[in-house]
Amino acid sequence: MNFSNVFFSIIVCLCLTSSLTTSYQTFDRSLPQDPTRACRRRRTMKGELRNICKHEPHLIAKMRDGAIQAHAECQHQFRFRRWNCTATRKSLRRVLQRDTRETGFVHAITSAGVTHAVTKACTNGELLDCTCDNLQDQMTNAHWHWHGCSDNVRYGYTKAKQFMDGRYRRRSDSKTNVKLHNYEAGRVSITHNMKKECKCHGLSGSCSTKTCWMRMPTLREVGNMLKRRFDGAAKVIPANDGTSVLPSGPTIKPPTTEDIIYMEESPDFCSFNGSTGSLGTEGRVCHRGSPDVDGCDLMCCGRGYATIIQWKRENCHCEFRWCCDVTCKSCIKEEEINICR
Length: 341
Ligand SMILES: *[C@@H]1O[C@H](CO)[C@@H](O)[C@H](O)[C@H]1NC(C)=O
Ligand SMILES: *[C@@H]1O[C@H](CO)[C@@H](O)[C@H](O)[C@H]1NC(C)=O
Description:
Blueprint: H1 3-16, H2 20-30, H3 47-55, H4 57-77, H5 89-97, H6 101-123, E1 144-146, H7 153-165, H8 174-191, E2 195-201, E3 209-215, H9 219-231, E4 234-238, E5 245-247, E6 261-262, E7 272-273, E8 278-279, E9 285-286, H10 296-299, E10 305-321, E11 325-340
Bound molecules: 2-acetamido-2-deoxy-beta-D-glucopyranose (NAG) (2 copies).
């Protein structure tokens, strides 16, 4: 089973269709080889996905790539945590049905991944109906010009929003609002962090003129930023009107667009629980002596751990010989691996 496809199909069906099971099966069967094949069953689809399939089927492939990259980034960011962004289908579905900070992070990174992939495809000339962003031509000064190919993040933002938020346009309950807030947090983690890049021109590198363009952060940088937002995520409670949300206490400052928000405390993810989607930490590798959540004490939830010794062959005593050679000896090194009980 391809976990990345599972991830995308779950995201797609939670995002886009009211009939969860139909489209879930649709995507699961049709995505693996050719993503545009997903669009063949257009008649059974609803809303924005149907529109995109009809008019811009090539976009679906890019969005799928974005969701897959987002999932890889989620696994990287959570590799040392009890919940490691696993894509086991049932578990991920459960996690996404709740309102915890983990849910918020997955929503934010997915919508960031989709925005990133669509924008990048646009810059690379892979999409017909968008080009580099040239609007900044006017803002030229004496020493530099906007003449490079700026990432067209407005296009990526708009398409990602259409795709991810489309289904919820007519809904307004606090759960939906939390989700839409986190989708937006993901998209703005890109749009608010564009950087100017320049190239020098002029005789012998004098840099008398420069060509500049705006570049998106890498998905790794986005992942790092969103992980910090996850660590400082803001708890909210439903407001009296039943639709909007408020900070969970009078002294807590209202979250900004960039913040990840949540309504429900996370389970501890220590042991298996089918209803929360927790797989437990039995069998996970932990780091002895680390006081953080990757350390055996916290990772194994006090159950203890088993230590396995492995021997590994590696290069050692390397010497540099003039010129230009490096010679090494081969050593056997002992390596300790700790695994939660
Ligand atoms: C699973 O988690 C739910 C919600 O936290 C809790 O109410 C329930 O008791 C847990 N079930 C088990 C078997 O631990
Ligand atoms: C994530 O955790 C699950 C169970 O806790 C484990 O089976 C899986 O191997 C872990 N994945 C990675 C990439 O560490």
